[in-house]
Structure formats: structure tokens, C-alpha cells
Amino acid sequence: MSEFDAGFDQVDEVDEQEIAEAMATGAGGCETVGVGIPLAGGKPVTAGSHPGGHPGGHPSGMPPAGHPGGHPGERQRHGGARSMGFMPGGGPAAQAYQEAHPGVKAPRIIAWEITRSCNLGCVHCRAAAEFGHYPGELSLDQCKAVIDDIATISNPIIILTGGEPLMRPDIWEIIDYAHVKGCMPVVGTNATLITDEIAHKLAEHGIPRISVSIDFATAEEHDAFRRQPGAFDASIEGIKRAKATGVGVQINTTVTKLNAEQLPEIHDLAERLGVDAFHIFMLVPTGRGSEIEDLELPPEGYEKALTWAYERQKTSPLHFKPTDSPHYYRIIRQLAKAEGKKVTREEYGMDAMTRGCLGGITFSFISHIGDVQPCGYFDQQLGNVKEQPYSEIWTNSKVFNDLRDYSKLEGKCGACEYKGVCGGCRARALALTGDYMEEEPYCAYVPPSWTPEMAAEHAKVIEEKAEARAREIEERGTLLAGQ
Ligand code: SF4
Ligand code: SF4
Questions:
Q1: 126 lines ligand 1 (CB under 6 A)
Q2: How confident is the model at residue 86, as a pLDDT?
Q3: Which residues contact 79 (CB under 8 A, 6 or more apart)?
Q4: Quick check: 245 and 272 in contact, CB under 8 A?
Q5: Per-position DSSP letters for 24-77, written without gaps between them
Q6: Parallel, antiparallel, or unpaired for β 363-366 and 157-161?
Q7: Residues of 250-288 as b/e, b for ≥16 C-beta within 10 angstroms?
Q8: Is 323 helix (H, G, I), strand (E, B) or coil?
């Protein structure tokens, strides 16, 4: 076992809460302003215009240190759920589940697209969500049944996302029911609908944290990207209102070629706003994001942005978490080594203990119609909760079980000494090649054991898979068009 493998094993034993916190990712869901209804600040929204939402705008699931709905200022800025005694996946149901299923962990975080309807329509939205009703969404009773089933195997953080989850009128009943069943609901929202009343309701219903996407440091650029005048100001107002009631706030930023150089300014804005966390997300080109694939950073751009993150978080007062960029966990080890350090928990906190991609390992996603996936960007459904209990899908899905077995990784990821702490993005591999165990296409690292001959040989394999994948997508499109 390599030192990296050893590191991840420690994670499992030491602090699953923090893994879950780190894994507030890939759930999809946007935060955006939309079509035909006013923002909370009373600013009209131009019909047909669509500001962009953050794909995977997810709170980290950190409950406040104070009583839900309690007093602002009593929470710990960096406080994790452990300080409240809440351990996702640490309850008796999860313990019993893991004893009965050796090698399979109980889910610690479930991102749930509780509705796809959204008042925005952001450019890079994973869900390609729009305003209006989406047929087939789970009813309140169906939602409760899903929560009942989840509670039989775990007590996870449930990220209620969308779309815009606050568009769902029964969201408060869903939140309350999740609490009753021992889970911890959090909300990924665009914040544009957060009036003073909604902010108080978030606090009263025990929402410890919301996440909100801010993609640029100025209103002009943010609104242009989101194609929605007023989106930036509305989100900032929503953030302030939430904070005023004691609800924690995490700012998410999707990094593209357009804003990569602006990360320091966006971070400073987050700091000025006094939020709790700043999470940068690397674009995963699925959903509406596939239309802006050319804005995705090249592998070298990822290295640069993630290196900036490593350096900046050393002095940042914010909880800092690069997401959907599993190779960050390789980069911190490389940079630490260059500094003569070892990545230990004492020195690096949870960065030393967590792993890059946890899709299917301790994390999963449920879509607005009940499809279960490893994450919101992973374009393959593993089952549907209307037809099969979530717990069965989690336990028995071949895809989930493959993802749990790192020895099945292919290409340079399979040969990589960092696969235990990184693993590459399985959603990107799937999107490019149709094979979710293929190598991560956006990693610049070449493992020492991956010779140029092996790389050349494997490039042909990837090319064939990519061609087959392109044909499959084309056929799917033709089929859909014919329906
Ligand atoms: S080669 Fe794969 S496992 Fe290794 S660092 Fe890159 S993405 Fe991670
Ligand atoms: S597959 Fe990619 S987007 Fe999904 S959870 Fe893993 S790293 Fe994140």
C-alpha cells in the first residue's frame, strides 16, 4: 500500500464528517435568476433571460455550532458538524449497514435535486434547468418515502438542490421530515429568492448552511455570464439576509477560462461578505455546461488554479475547498513535498484525510425524477427510487461497486501512485469515452510508471472509445429527435 493509500484509509477511520463536508460536490443544481418572476430584492427579471447557475452549488453540510435558528455570531466559522455532535454516516443505522455489508460504506452525503425548476437558467447549468414545471418530479409523499428508506441505512447530510430548491412550495416539509429522520438537510440555492422571511424560515427550519454561486467579482461580469441583469446584486442581498439570521453561507465559484485569473478577487469578495467558506468548482461539461466546453480550462490551467488554491488557503480565513478537481489531492502532496513537508492531519487538516472523488463511495445524487447517479455530472442512471429503494441501488449497483474498486481504474489513473487520494473525475472520463473507469482527461500529471509507449498505446484505446461515445450520443440525439 502506498503512503497515499494509507492516507485515505485513515480518512475512513478518522472523520467521515469532514469527508462528507469535502464532498459537497458534483450534485448539480444551480443558483440562478430566472424567467418571469421577481428576485427577492424586488428587481424584475427579464423574461427569457438566463443568468448562469453554478453546476454543483452545494453547501458543505456543516451544521452551525448554535441551535438551528439561533443567534448569528455563535457559530464557528470553521466549525464542522463534529462540533455539534452530528456525524453523517455515524448513526446506528449506518453502523449496522456497514457491518452487514463489508466493503461498502453507508452514504454520508446525498445531493438531491429536489426540483429542476429554476428561476434562472445559467449558461453552465448541469441540469439545464429552466422556469416551469418538470413532469415526473417526486411528490411530497414520494420524497418522504425516499427519506424513510435512506434512514434505514444511514444518517447522511442531504443537500437539497435543483434547479432552485426554494421554488418548491413543500421544501419546508421535506426539510422538517429529513430532520425528524435523523438526517441533516442543507440547501444549495441561488439566493435570489431569499427575502427576510425566507431567511428566517431557513434558520427556523434548522438549515445550517446554504451555498450560493458567485462566478465573478463584479456585477457586470457575473450578470453577463448568467445572462441576467440583477443576478449578482440579488444573490449578494440573499447572502446578507441569510447571514443576518445565523444561517451559514458558502460561496461556490465555477472556474472557467473566463474567470480563472479573477479567483483572488472573488475570494476577497467572499471574505468581505464574511461568509464561512469558499469552494472553487472545476467545470464538468455536462448538461448546459457541455455547450461551453471550450471554456473549460486545459489541464495546465487546472494545475495553475489548484496551485493558487493551495497557496491561498494557507492564510485565508475561509474554509477552502477545491471541488470536482480530485487531482488537487495529488497537487497538495507534490507541493508539500517540495516544501519539505508531509501531508499530515496536524499540518493540513482534512486535506490530509479526504479523497478527491467520492462518487459512489460515500456520496451520491438523486435527480428530480428519482434517478440515482454517483454525482450530478455523471451522465448515467443506476436506478430510480420510484421503482427500487435507494438503499438497494446504493448497495447493489454494478457502477457503484466498480467505483469502490480503485484497481479497476484504467489508463494512467490505473497506473498512478496517487489514485488512492485522487482517482480522477469519473464523470469526465464517462463524458469523453463512455467508460467511467477510464483515465481523467483533464490531468496534466504523468505517473512515473506510465511510459511513453504505454501512453501511445492507450491513446489509441481512448480514441476508439471516444469515437464510439460520440456515435452513441449522436444516436441518442437522433432517437430523441424522432420521439
Ligand atoms: S493520473 Fe489520474 S489518479 Fe493520478 S493524479 Fe491524475 S487524475 Fe489523479
Ligand atoms: S465524478 Fe467528478 S464531478 Fe462527480 S463527484 Fe467525482 S470528481 Fe466530482
A1: no
A2: 81
A3: 62, 64, 65
A4: no
A5: --S--------SSS--TTS----TT------TT--------SS-TT--TTSS-T
A6: unpaired
A7: bbbbbbbebbbebbeebbebbeebebbbbbbbbbbbbbb
A8: strand
330 pLDDT tier (thresholds 50, 70, 90):
very high
Residue nearest to atom 7 of ligand 1 (CA): 424
Q: Nearest CA to 283 among 268, 298, 269, 271?
A: 298
Q: How much is the pTM?
A: 0.84
The tally of CA atoms less than 13 A away on the side-chain side of residue 429 is 22
Gap from CA of 94 to ligand 2 centroid (Å):
23
pLDDT (0 to 100) of residue 123: 59
Q: For residue 450, which atom of ligand 1 is closest to its CA?
A: 1
- DSSP character for 346? H
Partners of residue 252 on adjacent β-strands: 213, 279
- On the question of pLDDT at 48 being above 50, the answer is no
Cβ 395 vs Cβ 104: under 8 Å:
yes
The reported pLDDT for the residue numbered 160 is: 97
* DSSP structural state of residue 246: T
Distance (Å) from CA 325 to ligand 2 centroid: 8
Ligand 2: residue whose CA is nearest its atom 6: 357
Nearest to 429 by CA among 294, 327, 280: 327
